[in-house]
Write a structure and sequence with these properties.
Elements lengths: L2 E5 H10 L1 E5 L2 E4 L1 E6 L9 H7 L6 E3 L3 H14 L5 E6 L3 H4 L2 H9 L4 E7 L33 E5 L5 H13 L6 E7 H4 L2 E5 L6 E3 L8 H12 L4 E5 L1 H5 L3 H11 L3 E3 L14 E4 L6 H9 L2 E5 L5 H4 L11 E6 L2 H4 L5 E4 L2 H11 L7 H22 L9 H10 L6 E4 L4 H8 L8 E3 L8 H12 L5 E6 H6 L3 H8 L4 E6 L4 H9 L22 H7 L3 E5 L2 H13 L4 E6 L24 H18 L1
Parallel strand pairs: 2-11, 4-5, 4-6, 6-7, 7-9, 8-9, 12-13, 12-15, 13-14, 15-16, 16-17, 18-19, 18-20, 20-21, 21-23, 22-23
Antiparallel strand pairs: 1-10, 2-3
Keywords: Hydrolase, Thiamine pyrophosphate
Organism: Chelatococcus asaccharovorans
Family: Belongs to the TPP enzyme family.
């Protein structure tokens, strides 16, 4: 057997560079790049290896470890899980900074290869700088924090261990049903140790997306259920986009007259203009989609994990006899809440379902009723997004201004706060993948770093990041990285001076305004934050606008710029779209000195009684 002597880090990097995939029929490296912030735990070993391979496997420098992992996650999401990135940090705070991002990838079923430095396997210098010590377990390190948020975790304590560990990592990263973050904790002494690796470890390997076809019995059962349906509804989740099944979905719904509602991850899987696209479902759903869900007797849930925002904490599907068919690559998701599983790839499953339903369509009255409800909702939404004369515009009005200046191929990206709910209801997505929302983990701080990752994945599309002032303050450093890399973003900062979304939830549950808006916090002086000046200091073109018309002008100008633009506008922290939507289970205290809380608890108990009955 032919071998080559390399350090473990050199072997890992060479193996990564040899992994390939196909995108639009063209072979491409499956790892587009490695994000790296170096420290004593990875600079000498992995850093040297990355330098040697920098032409085949680019290394990108970020400003925050969590942010670079968010960028890698957004890259994978935009690339439909066909391509991905790795991230490396030193031992200690650099590693633990990435744990939140690992959770984002885990919840959203997205591939992310985490390569944190680790302790010395030989333990000679213990405790090394930044090492976490467990008084009762000598094998523990800070990287054990990654275990619950990794699909696969391994600690490399001998150089030859990287061979089976990397093989297992690639299987997980490319498996549609098991996809998620992988952590290979690299002991820093082992990174530098040499071993005679078989040349076969570095042979080019092509990873093709697996398309699991449905089991015959499950397929027959799903077809029979749908044929007997009077009020069928499709719920389209992110799996539709990951499977590249948007065309199959459109053909399925058109052929059989079944309306579609979209989750946060699934939005843009069906063209907005499709007459059977009822828009967002659930807590942040449209009136059209939620009414269809309330009445549906069969729900085909495609590529969704049916979390509580989608199901209205399991109160949305109100027909006592409703049957849910879970079309999903992962049996865990396909069978949730006693759904009838149809374990399959979304595209393959929809194609075979459609063939089995040949000649059958939903009742005409159901279909035309859905089309009418859609038209009514669009008229309602237009009223909320229209420009107004209020001193402070609502989030919905800002969304309307951004929509009017957007192009069909643009990507709008957001993550946390009130904006995702407003965008879910109101944004009209153009091309597939044009709506990029991190709402599985709803991670504040994802937005700007995520925008960077999306732009790197699809440079031809303009990326519009919408972010509140709270999230901006949590993580904004990758504005500088976007400028450095020439990855132009248009960032719209909606400044409502605090955490407006949670303030509204606090009020809705009877709480007094407290510790959310800046004015309601303990303070000596309220900060006057100049976001435009801050963004300019990071290298962006920036300005603050005083009106919606100025915002639209600034957006037009930003499209012509070559650099990242940041546009700031003050907004109303209290206004939100009260049309559409659905109840969400947020527990309210049983006892309180406040009348408002007691009233909220009474309403909460009534809602629980309706759900349980």
């Amino acid at each position: 057997m032919a071998t080559v002597r390399l350090t473990m880090a050199q072997a890992l990097v060479a193996a990564m560079a040899a992994q390939k995939t196909t995108v639009d029929g063209q072979v491409a490296p499956i790892f587009a790049a490695v994000w790296a912030i170096f420290g004593h735990g990875n600079v000498a070993g992995l850093g040297e290896a990355l330098y040697a391979m920098r032409e085949r496997l680019p290394t990108l420098r970020a400003h925050n470890e969590q942010a670079m992992a968010h960028a890698a996650i957004a890259f994978a999401k935009t690339a439909r899980r066909r391509r991905m990135m790795a991230v490396t940090s030193s031992i200690g705070p650099g590693a633990t900074n990435m744990v939140t991002a690992a959770a984002v990838a885990h919840v959203n079923r997205l591939p992310l290869l985490l390569l944190p430095g680790d302790v010395f396997a030989g333990r000679r210098p213990d405790p090394v700088l930044q090492q976490i010590e467990d008084f009762g377990d000598g094998t523990v390190s800070a990287n054990d924090c990654f275990r619950p948020v990794s699909r696969y975790f391994d600690r490399i304590t001998r150089p030859e261990q990287i061979i089976p560990a990397f093989e297992r990592a690639m299987q997980v990263l490319t498996d549609p049903s098991d996809c998620g973050p992988v952590t290979l904790a690299l002991c820093q002494d082992v990174q530098t140790e040499a071993y005679d690796y078989p040349e076969s470890f570095f042979a080019e390997r092509l990873w093709q997306p697996r398309r699991l076809r449905p089991d015959a019995a499950e397929l027959d059962g799903a077809i029979a259920r749908l044929r007997g349906a009077q009020r069928p509804l499709v719920v389209a989740g992110g799996g539709v986009l990951y499977s590249e099944a948007e065309q199959a979905l459109a053909q399925f719904c058109t052929a059989h007259g079944i309306p579609v509602a979209e989750t946060q991850s699934g939005k843009s899987s069906l063209p907005h203009a499709h007459p059977l696209n009822l828009g967002a479902i659930g807590v942040t759903g449209t009136a059209a989609a939620n009414e269809a869900a309330r009445r549906a007797d069969v729900v085909l849930a495609v590529g969704t994990r049916l979390q509580d925002f989608t199901t209205g904490s399991w109160t949305l599907f109100a027909d006592p006899a409703v049957a849910i068919i879970g079309l999903n690559t992962q049996a865990f998701d396909a069978g949730k809440h006693r759904a009838r599983p149809l374990v399959a790839d979304a595209k393959a499953g929809l194609v075979e379902l459609s063939a089995g339903l040949s000649g059958w369509t939903a009742p005409a009255a159901w279909r035309t009723g859905a089309e009418t409800a859609r038209a009514d909702w669009l008229a309602t939404a237009a009223r909320y997004t229209a420009a107004g004369n209020a001193a402070l515009p609502s989030d919905a009005q800002v969304i309307g201004a951004v929509q009017r200046q957007s192009a069909p191929g643009d990507i709008v990206l957001c993550a946390a706060g009130g904006l995702p709910g407003e965008l879910h209801k109101l944004w009209q997505a153009g091309a597939p993948g044009g709506y990029h929302m991190e709402y599985g983990y709803s991670c504040m701080g994802y937005e700007i770093a995520g925008g960077l990752g999306a732009k790197l994945a699809d440079p031809a599309r303009d990326v519009i990041v919408m972010v509140g002032d709270g999230s901006y303050l949590m993580m904004n450093s990758e504005i500088a990285t976007s400028v450095m890399l020439g990855a132009k973003l248009t960032i719209v900062v909606l400044d409502n001076r605090g955490f407006g979304c949670i303030n509204r939830l606090q009020n809705a549950t009877g709480g007094a305004p407290f510790n959310n808006l800046l004015r309601d916090t303990r303070h000596e002086t309220l900060p006057a934050i100049d976001f435009a000046a801050h963004a300019a200091s990071l290298g962006a073109i920036s300005r603050k606008v005083a009106s919606l018309s100025e915002l639209e002008t600034a957006l037009m100008e930003a499209r012509a710029h070559e650099l990242t633009s940041v546009i700031v506008i003050d907004t109303d922290p209290l206004a939100s779209t009260d049309a559409g939507g659905h109840w969400w289970d947020v527990a309210v205290p049983e006892t309180s000195a406040r009348d408002e809380v007691r009233t909220a608890r009474r309403l909460y108990d009534e809602a629980l009684a309706r759900r349980d009955n």
